[in-house]
Write a structure and sequence with these properties.
710 residues, mainly alpha, Serine Threonine Protein Phosphatase 5, Tetratricopeptide repeat, two-stranded antiparallel sheet, 4 strands, translation initiation factor binding, phospholipid binding, nucleus
Length: 710
Amino acid sequence: MASKNLLRETLQGLKMSKKGKIKFDPYWAERGEHILEGYKGDLGLSPNCAGVMDRLSSRPLKKSSFLCSSSGGCSPDSSAGSVSDINTINTTFSAATPLKNKRRHLAVSDEMNSETPEADVSKVSSPVSLPAISLLSSKAMQTAGCIDRIEKKHQEKAKSALRLRQEKLVVAVADAASEQLKRFEELMELKQKQEDQSMRDMRDRETKESMVRYEKLKEEQRHRMKNLNLSQKVAEPEQQQLWEAELERQTQVDGRERLQNLHTIQVEILQLNQLLRPSSQTKTDLPPTSISTYSTRGNQLCSQVSVVVRKTAEGQFPSVEDMTMAEQALHEMRALIQLMQEEVVKAHEWKKEEQEQEEKRRKMAALQAQQDVQKKAAQSAQQKAMKKGLQNTAEDSTLKWYKELQQTAAQCAQAIEQLSTTKDAQTKKLKQELQKAATIPVSQISSNSGSQLREIFDKIDKLLSGGAVVSGGKSVSVSQHPQGLDFVSYKLAEKFVKQGEEEVASHHEAAFPIAVVASGIWELHPRVGDLILACLHKKCPYAVPHYPPMKDGTPVEEYQKILGYRVGESGVEDQDSFLKRMSGMIRLYAAIIQMRWPYISKQGSLPHGLNHGWRWLAQMLNMEPLADITATLLLDFLEVCGNALMKQYQGQFCKLMLYLKEEYLPRIEAVTSSGQMGSVSRLQEFLETALQNQQISPPKGQLSSRFWRT
């Protein structure tokens, strides 16, 4: 039993030795090691073997009986020899203990440190290499043989496992390589698709100007010729080969670029050819022969480019000559499109001009018919007036006053003609500065605050009084030129009337701040007031009131100018615009006759006060009414000035209003067509409200005493 335990401990020690612990490593090839690298280490036994040997050394009798039991008997001599043999075995195994063993640090002999694992195994397991083993008993020999067989069996098993692992590894590597190749092919296919998509996207981009590309191609050709000449001078074959490879690469790059440009040109030509197809607009603007010519030529140009594109479908790159031809076709196509568009524009303009001429002729015919109707109405009204006492023109005194004012304005305009038409640079600059100094303050008049209005008034008054004012960062005065005062007065009067024509016509409340400044200037500078009236009567003769008669031989357009219409290149302005301007100027006039500048002494009457408003209204009611214009102006005048006239004249004004409603309004209705009854209805409603309430509401926008404190 002890021998079996000893055998088991021996086998366990061998199993725990360095060689017994050898394991197969599947990654030996990756580290670059030998497959039997583990066998090259120092031979040694497990530390457990040392303990077994110690016990063998300390119990010789048991070892002797163990050895002798295999032979059947022993003697003292043989016992001694057995002990020595056991000591020899102990020494041999001790020599095989590793250097790292903490109990035995004996050196391993040079014979045990062989280079190959096979030699190590043979030295340990072979009885020939260990002479001491030959002295053992048959049981020891059998144990050594078992150890040798087990070790060989393990070696064969390890080699078989190694070969199996290698075969599996080779199969795995082959599968991985096949899978990796498949993935690479899929990646290349995806990359090819992306490149194809990129090529298709690049075809849609804008190309450079064809002449620039042509010059670039010529420059590249010169560069290639230069490189070719240099290559002929190169002696070494290696440099020649490199140059040829670079030339081939450059040729491929240039070819692909030309192919891309060719596709871009083809797409653009096809798109332009679509524009040449007859559409609804071109069919109406261009004759069929012209459309057919453009379409045929466009198809020919598309065919030329298609011939070049078909060559590239065979795997060839387009040549420089092909690109030149394609670019010329593109140029011609663009020119063709531009020519057709110009022809369409010209045809459209001609058609529009024909329509405008037709519209103008139609308006002129309608206006002529309207004037004929008005003329007949005026004649009939004249006949009735002869019976009932109404006039067709203003009173002689009013006409005389009107002509005197026009003569005054004409003299002033003649006096400033030298300054207005000067060619001297310095005088022209002075004229511009004076005009700005006169007109800009009038444009700034508003109902924002009384203090601002007073500053504007003081600036205009100072300029007319000969003082220096700042305009545009420069000081200017009317005393700098002999006609300076007349020029400023005339331009100032024109500007006041223009504000009524434009600003008051759009915003009725603006009449009062403009009127109060004009009234104050009029009171301090009466000449300016006369010029304001003259300009107002010239643009709006109904402010006199005066209905200029049409003289024989006077053109229709000239007569319309006299009546106040604007006549331009596009013809006579429409009736709504005309009535709007007349309304604005009458409202300004009605505001002027009742307004007074609050910072001037109120002793005495206004230079043009409410008495002139009564005169104007009486004159209007004594004249035969005109369609549309009479009702509109009467309503505007009464809305602005009616409250002041009623306060001034009270009962007399109420009688005048009653006469207007009962006697004059039916006359207006008699000469007004059904499409122009809007102003008549508004006037009738205003009169009924005023007579019913026995008062007229104050006008909107009138300046109060509180305004002057702001």
